[in-house]
Structures are given as C-alpha cells and as structure tokens.
C-alpha cells in the first residue's frame, strides 16, 4: 500500500515516478522533498549529496515513513544539479505484463524534426576525436546526438511508456517527473549498480551492432560483433575501469574473462555481468553509483580527459542523458541504470538522445549509423522509423 501522507505533500504533480526491473516496479506518489544537490563527491559520508539524502530520509521518517526511498535522475556532469526526490509515498508491485508488441499507440502528427549535430557535424566530431587520440592520452570518447521532434499536440507519455514496455520486455523502464514539468522517459539496457545487503551487481555494456530483420543476417551481425577487435577493445576499457574501482571495495569480485552478447529489440551489445560482496555492507547503492559514474561506457577513457574532449566537440549540454536513473532506500539498497535509450517529453516536444563510443579504429560513417540505430528504440515507440 502507498505510504501515508501521499496526498498531503503532493506538490501538484499529476503522476509519480516509475522504475521497473527484474519483474517488479516501483511507483511513487507525490513529492515529500526535492534534492538538487550535485552528485559530485556523493560517495563521501556526511557531506554533499550523501548528507542531503540522509537528512531528507530522517525528515521522512519523522513524517511517518518506515523506510523512505530516493528516486530520480543524476546528470552526466555530476557538477550539475541532481533531479532526485523523496516521494510522499510509494509501493512495490509485480511488473505489469507487457502487451503484445503491435502497432505503436497513435501520437500527434509530426511537424518537424532536427538532429544536433547533423550527419556532417557528427562525422567531423568523430574525425576530430580520432585525431585527438593520436596526440593525447585519450583512448576512447563517447559522442552523442540529440534528435528533437515537434508534434502537432502534446505527447501522451503514458502511452509512450506502454509502447516502450511492449517493444522492450527486458531492461530498466523509467518515467521521472522533472521540476520544469517535463518528463524523462525511456528503457535502458544497462545496469550501473544494484545493491542488496552486502551483494552488488554491475552489468556494463560497450560495443554495439544493429539488429537485423532477417534471422540469418541478425545472427551474422551478432557474431561479427563478437569478433570485432575494435568493439572488444572498447569493451575492455570499460570493464577494466570498473574492476579497478570495485576491487578495493569488495572482499569478493567476479569479473568474467570475456563478454557475452546481450540483445534488445534494436541492438546487440557486448555485456559483462560483474558480481561482488562489499567489504562494508553499509555503503549505499547511491554512494557506489557516485563512485563509478561516469564510466568509459558513456564518457570515455581516461575519464577527465575524455570529458574535456566531449565538452569541446559536442554542440549541446547532455543534461540527464548518459547520467543515472534509479532509486535507493534508507537501508542502502537500490539500483541505478545508465540513462540511455531515453527522451525528455515537454508538451509538444520530444528530445531523444543516442551516443556511440569512439576509439582510434572507429569509422565516422559507421558511428553515425550506430547512433541512428540506437535512436530506433524511442522512435519505434513513437511509431516512427529511425
């Protein structure tokens, strides 16, 4: 049942947040307290974001919540304000069964769309990054695009979410209210961290290929991805970075020797499931997320140098894209997914995002094709072609 006081503290939001994974979903009701403290240094006990969350949890306990939770999103750039809140109430329930994927729900007529950067601008950014690799310590940088769609009327986010659920039965489905009355919505395939008691799981992805309609061609695309030296190299950069961060925090850490294949409706990915047991079970899921983020899967390697390169070549601010979305409770349990395969809906506008990992062996035309394929998840949910 929803916690008490759900209506008392509702700040005029007509909906709550949703985060679904592993056959269950978390639904929130109302806003007890917003938390906008940036996530930089959020792993440090008693300071910054950690201190703000603990204080908010204590106020929620005094208001009658036995085990308060935090839900929301953290930006790509952890120096920017977070978009997190302690809801007035929440409930866990079995994940609603997805309807059979058929025709996507109707959306208002599409009036126009634009890509930032456009194809030529993105390819030039990839070329710039490759030249930079040869003259710096950067080995990988993730470059992205925004596709902005403008419709004849407001987007029905509930129907969009239902379409995402129907077409993507696996993954981390989310809908998060934003302070400016927009909504962050999507279905991410990538788990940054899950913590239950003292046990943790991380499932980073790096290295991708577009799914094919023909089964034989689809299998061939998957096998080619497994053999790709470029994609295997990109994946190793991510795994070794996360291993180096988690190993000192764990009494046990299991990292498979080689990645496996993971598929979504639109993409094949190289995937490695990492499992461990913490030295300090009191460390929270949010603290762990703040330690790991951003990984080379969404930023690059080394992190700081890659981040500088991204700021230089990308003609927009990412905001919540390639940040984190998820939840954490007052006992420290929680899960945080990478904010990809997503969009921000605001009245008659939908901004979609996609990125690709660039290494020295990258081909600008192939990377453009990859970001277009990744946009397919959200475009298909809107009934539009990639």
TrEMBL record:
<keyword id="KW-0413">Isomerase</keyword>
<comment type="similarity">
    <text>Belongs to the isochorismate synthase family.</text>
</comment>
<dbReference type="InterPro" id="IPR004561">
    <property type="entry name" value="IsoChor_synthase"/>
</dbReference>
<dbReference type="Pfam" id="PF00425">
    <property type="entry name" value="Chorismate_bind"/>
</dbReference>
<protein>
    <recommendedName>
        <fullName>isochorismate synthase</fullName>
        <ecNumber>5.4.4.2</ecNumber>
    </recommendedName>
</protein>
<dbReference type="InterPro" id="IPR005801">
    <property type="entry name" value="ADC_synthase"/>
</dbReference>
<feature type="domain" description="Chorismate-utilising enzyme C-terminal">
    <location>
        <begin position="119"/>
        <end position="374"/>
    </location>
</feature>
<dbReference type="InterPro" id="IPR015890">
    <property type="entry name" value="Chorismate_C"/>
</dbReference>
